[in-house]
Amino acid sequence: MRGILDHSPLPCTTVSSGLPERTAARRRRRRRRRIVVAVVAATFVVLVAAAVAVATADDDSTTHERAVAASTTTTTPPRVTTTTTAPAPAATAPPATTATPTPPPRDLTRRYPVSTYTVDFVDTTRTESPNGSFEGAPSRTLTTTFWYPAVADGGDPDRADGPYPLVLFVHGYDQTAAFYAPLLERWASAGYVVAGPTYPFLSGIPGGASHVDYDKLFGDSAFVIAQTLASGPDRPIGGGLVDPSRIAAAGHSDGEMVSFTLGFSNCCTGLHLRSIITMAGDLSRADIDPVRDSGLPILDIMETNDEYDPYQGSIDWARANLTPPRWLLTLDNASHVPPYTRPGNPHFELVATTTVDFLDGTLKDRPDRLDQLTADVAAHPDLATLER
């Protein structure tokens, strides 16, 4: 179990749930993936159109309560639940989001204070299946935490420099976005609104971690994006804080399969994503035939000592199947988790720097930041290598 002792057991897991069990879960998932795209393609466009249509506030704060990791830059507003009922299915794809004029050049070296906000988005048009001790539900709840630029630590959003690009983050198996808070805070500090949904079952909530309803995770992602864009000024994330024309998706481990599919499967083109970040996994496990030569930029990060996805298979598949514009970042002598969760870890610091470079280059129309990404990796030959 190479690298397994590099970090303590992940939250929400036990010491006994090691590599064999995780690997078996991944194998079960792979057997199911071949049917996913056909199912998702039939519902995805309808969901995007429906979710934008209605956003109704509700004071109910009891649904799927989840503690969010504490932070010195965290606000604690009351929990809000948003319930959406879809209109009749749309016959065609939703229109592309109206482009927002390019903002004036910004100082990309500025680092903002960061605040957080948590809301329950409830989709009444789709169900949660039975899972373990959970009997199922007639709706789907996406408890979502946002990290966003603020005027002061724990303060109101900094709207003066908005609107900001949106980054949807998909967590790994048996985790929530809170586990990755140090990295997501870095992104928000660099001028991004980061949405971190708690995905049903993939997170372990409710009923335990599983890949039940895996095919619904893509619709969940679209729903969260749509609800974010529909939020009004009564929410920190609303009132024009988010730029609807500048959206990226990122994910770690099992979450990278979701973010990759959102960007490179024909099922999900209605999201109009501007770039994709995939971290710590073998993209072949997504079991899709990725759209080639689409022009969508991807930063794919791998570790030579990944204890769940052997590096050679990951890099070979990426070289053969990812077409430019692509950046293949290899973290030498790194394992599956620390580069994405541990501030001060040299690999974490490099990941934080290069992912911000990539986002700046692809979401803020600053191609010079992509050159900076190359320079930042070249400055640390003991930590990483980069292929284009």
Q: How are the secondary structure elements laid out?
A:
Layout: H1 19-33, H2 36-53, E1 56-58, E2 80-84, E3 114-123, E4 140-149, E5 164-170, H3 181-189, E6 193-198, H4 217-230, E7 242-252, H5 254-264, E8 275-279, E9 298-303, H6 311-321, E10 326-331, H7 346-363, H8 368-378, E11 384-387
Parallel strand pairs: 2-3, 5-6, 5-7, 7-8, 8-9, 9-10
Antiparallel strand pairs: 1-2, 3-4, 4-6, 10-11
Helix pairs in contact: 2-4, 7-8
- What is the CATH C level class, in words? Alpha Beta
Sketch the topology as an H/E string, one letter per element.
HHEEEEEHEHEHEEHEHHE
- CATH superfamily placement: Alpha/Beta hydrolase fold, catalytic domain
How are the strands of the largest sheet arranged? 1-2-3-4-6-5-7-8-9-10-11
**Rg from Cα:** 19 Å
Number of strand segments: 11
Kindly report the CATH topology: Rossmann fold
When the domains are counted, the total is: 1
Architecture (CATH level 2) name: 3-Layer(aba) Sandwich
Judging from the principal axes of the Cα atoms, what is the shape?
globular
The helicity comes to 25-40%
Poorly predicted spans: 1-78, 83-101
Mean pLDDT: 81
Q: How far is the first residue's CA from the last residue's CA?
A: 30 Å
What do these coordinates show?
The chain is 28% helix and 19% strand. It has a single domain (17-60, 73-91, 109-338), classed as 3-Layer(aba) Sandwich (Rossmann fold), CATH 3.40.50.1820. It contains eight helices and eleven strands. It has an eleven-stranded mixed beta sheet with strand order 1-2-3-4-6-5-7-8-9-10-11, with helices on both faces. With 388 residues, the chain is an alpha/beta fold. The radius of gyration is 19 Å and the shape is globular. Residues 1-78 and 83-101 have low confidence and may be disordered. β7 (242-252), α5 and β8 (275-279) form a beta-alpha-beta unit. α2 runs parallel beside α4 (217-230) and α7 (346-363) runs antiparallel to α8 (368-378). The protein starts with 18 loop residues before the first helix and ends with a strand.
